[in-house]
Design goal:
The complex is a heterodimer of chains A (794) and B (318). With 794 residues, chain A is mainly α. Chain A contains 34 helices and 4 strands. In chain B, helix 6 packs across helix 7. The chains are: A mainly alpha (794), B mainly alpha (318).
Chain lengths: 794, 318
Amino acid sequence: MNSSLAADQTTALVYGHSAEALHIICLIIFVFCGVKALFHKDLKKILIYSLVGLVVDVRSLLTIDSPFAFAAFLFHVFNFFVCIGMMYMAARALEKAVGSNSLDDMRGAGRVVPRIGIPLAAGLFAMMGLPPFATFFSKLVMVSAFIDAGGYVSPTLLAAGELLYFLVFIRVIKIVFLDRYKGSPLQDREWKNVAPLYGLLVFSVIGGLIPQIAVKPFLPLAGLMGAPGYGIPPLTISWPLPVLWLMAGAAAVYYFGRTSNKKAGLLSSLVCLSAMPTLLLSSAGVYGLSFAVLILFMATLQFFYSVSYMEHSHHQYRFYTCFLIMISGLLGVSLSQDIYSTFFFWEIMSGWIMYLALAHEEDAFSVQEATKYFIFNYLGAAFLVVGILIMYDVTGHWDYGKMAENFQYTERMAFAVLLLTIGFIMKAAQLPFRIDYWMHPKPAPTPISGYISSTVLKSGPFMMVKIFFIASLGATATTFLPLDLIKHVSGWIGALTIIMAASFAMLTNSMKRLLIFHTVSQLGYVIVGCSLMTSMGLAGGLLHFVNHMFFKNLLFLCAGAVFISTGTDKMDQLGGLGRKMPLTFICFMIGVLSISGVPLFSGFISKWIIYHAVMDTGYIGIAILSLFGSVLTLASFVKFMHSAFLGQMQDRVREAREASWYMLVPMSILAGLSVLLGIFPGMALMPINSMLVDFNLQPLQITISSVTDGVDSINMLFMLAALSLGMGVAGLLYFLTRTKTRKTHVFVCGVDDLTPEDSHVSSVNCYEDAKKIIKGAVKLMKKTIGLKGDYVER
Amino acid sequence: MITLSASILAYLFFPGGMFAIIFGLLLLGMERIAVARFQGRIGPPIFQNLFDVIKLRTKEFLVPEDATNRLMFIIAPFFGFGGMMTAIFILPVSGVYDGAGASSDLVVLIYLMALPAVSHIFGGSSSGSTYAAIAVSREAILMFAYEITFVIVLFTVALQAGAGDGALFSLKGIVDYQVRNGSFVHDLKMIPAFVAFVIFMLATLEVPPFHIAENDGDVMKGYYMEYSGMPLAVFELTHALKLLVLITVLQIFFMPGLAGGSIVVNLLWYMMKSAAIVIGIALVHASMPSFRVDQAFKFLMIVPVFLALLSLGLVLFL
């Protein structure tokens, strides 16, 4: 008896050790293959290395005790083989076409031979596990198997570990597809020779579109091998009608828009506008629907603007198509009723389509920045996937409503909420560690930069509120602590980001970079407001959410108009534009006044509500930081305004012309909305009030122009009356004096040999002392936290 | 209807509008006399600033040919004037006037008080003058430095007036609290905040040692440089109103005590307190040399911020 027990123990020990040893060996192989693939020069070898590494990685599924782990393993490995097979054949074909197996010789070759290039690119994106390929689902099922077995640290590590292989694939994409081809002309393959490649591609995409059927054969297969799989989560995506409409529109634009830019742009604009009525059929609730309306409205303006902006670009239809699909992904996020579809659309929104749209200009700088942003998004999604699957595992439902009903507060659930919050906050480019690394890229075409800033990044706070709501429903008083802590920390992150991003904006000399920094900073206000989850906080956050959409997009469009008209993004090369582009200047001023929160413009009232909410909750630190942030905002926009639009006219600006009507119309609509919402915030607060009711919160006391918080209240009509009466008195004084007006030259103390360049105070000369302090703070942070790199002007 | 017409009267004549402008101009005149006396000069008559404004009425208005945006150049003084008129309208004067509407709120006040600076920045920047451009850059950087002090002092006062029960943002509420429980200037915890606020006030008014953005010596009146005639007069009026607004805010925050039950007595008390504060400002003005912009920035970022934070800490944790 004793001896057999001892033997059992010994066996268990040996098994345990060998399992551990296997784990370590596999880990070594995984890392070795990844690193090898990352630096290898031969495309085929890269593919083989990554296949080996990934399969070894997936192998860890076999060690866990889960009903469907084996099926998940088979499904995933099968998909890998399909992709790698397709890519291997494509790589061989490409090698033959180029006549060399080195990646250096293949620079840009993928685009010259599209028939070979498309399967290769699709395979690379599929290997990253992005929709619409089957690997997206097999990865999901795989992570799900891990979570089903009870672990949650290992799937997180697994998802993060795939980042290594993501880098491998993105490197290949960058070299083969986004570089410029310099070699001799290439011969593309005949269609019939590449047919098998496309067969595999179709197979993969079908698996991606109907995963619930594609996964079927693997369950009995797993059964045959002695591990019948059951309990795989249902894999049905609900496709809202407007999303389908937009995708069809994207196809139409790709097909019909080849002939002219104008046609493509107007068609895209029309597609977005005509998608609005289809929203009536959706049942997403006022929260999602309002966001969807704004998404489509902004997209309509954006495409209208692009007609003029993209005129001198290339392949516009391609840009519009990618942009439209990205928007449809965002629309899907806003309209989906279950978290699974939300994640699917999330990956469409921030996946490879976005990458192609951002890298549209195809110069080295665009590609580099777009790649950086893509990597960052991929990392964020890795957190999300684990969080979502834990939520499913605990509640047993994808649907938001049912999820809230079955919500049980456990340690795992807190971990899931934490992961989701990190993922969503990362999408909003928060987290105050060197935001300048992971903001969305500057060199992308301005319409898409403006759209990402104003609308796409809002998906972060949008989803965060949803998750907090679900979590707070399930939480009872005793289990409230972790959620409270998460909200607390995200509020602080928002507040610190406000200051940090606004300080970086003080340093920069590039128009678009300044605006992007301010996007991050203003999103900080939204995060601060939303993370409070009180009536006032949420209302303020959501109102700022809307206001920021209008004024930030307005500022981007103005910057784009300046860029088109002068050809430079550097503020110190501009000056005196206000004279050449008066209408743009007026729109820009409205944007500046709104973003700095001057009363009567839209940023003011939302910030007012946020400050009150923050103080009501007792976060004095956050309140001080966010109020100080708005001073910084004003200061950095004064720099922008002065050095670009006012001051002495520079040589570069002399030839500048006013923006075209295609640009001015969207700009003036946005400017009008900023003023309108500044005076009548009730227009946006009324729908927000009904959202508050949906979120089980007390609605605010509002009228069309006023808001009341306890004893404090503010009435914008009153402010309007008081301020305009004061200005009227001043105007009356002007009018009554009726003295002569004479034109003179400015006084320069008799100096007559100053060039405009000498006498213009440009952006680099503003705020030298403040810049010194900010740079000092960056250096200090670098020393204390150990982060590398100084602030670099890009 | 009656409240509306009462509001309009309050806005245009008393305690805003007419009264405030004349009183503000007199305070400016008084400051000039006091500075002169401290420096052993006689100084101008007390009505000098009023005369200046009246005289400017007859002067012609020069618009620079090189102005980048003439419209902006012409309307820039409006922002500050409108903002200050509104500010003085919503500020309560203890025992005299309750402040208009329900909007008498600290957060609104911050933004209204930034408007004169915005007006300077817009006007100076659009004039096309290099001196004005330098002044704008300096004004913006000083604003950046002193605004943080103001924000912290404001929260300190709001928390102290909230008396442990969150923050009280209503200006009227702050005044009432102090009338009931004694002025904050008598409270040791609030002394650092008081000093910080005075420094903030000097910086906002650009009195030496913060006479930097519109210094005659190096930037020749800065953003005012190209202004003449009526717009300059409006700037002058804005300045007078700004002085009065700051003095009133100082009284609301720290010394809103009453002198008696009657409105007339309280009004006289308010005017006497204002005059005393102005003489205090004049003393600093007369005895201090001016900072350079970098020195001022460093000073403002360190000393008043530290004092204000000290007070905030004391209020929070004691």
